[in-house]
Amino acid sequence: NIPLNDVGVALEMSPEKFKEKYGREKPSPDDPNVIFSCRKGVRATSAMQTAHAKGYHAARFYRGSFCDWEERGGEVIKG
C-alpha cells in the first residue's frame, strides 16, 4: 500500500530502498500488474497518472475501486 502523496517518490526510489520501505520488489516500468485502487477510483486515477508521468505507462487503475468490488460481491474481510 503506497499512499497517494508518496506514489511519485516511491517510483523514483532505488529498488533496494523501495523493498526496504514497502517490503516487496519494486515493479518495473513495463509491469502490467501495477494497479491502483482506492475507495471510489478518484485517488486511484490520480496515482495512475502520476505513475504514467514517471514512466510506468502500463500502470492501470481499478475503476470504481473498493465500492465497486463490494457492490459486485467481492470478499471483504473485516478485522
From TrEMBL:
InterPro entries: Rhodanese-like_dom, Rhodanese-like_dom_sf. Residues 1-78 form the Rhodanese domain. It comes from the Eukaryota. This is Putative member of the rhodanese similarity domain superfamily. It comes from Amblyomma cajennense.
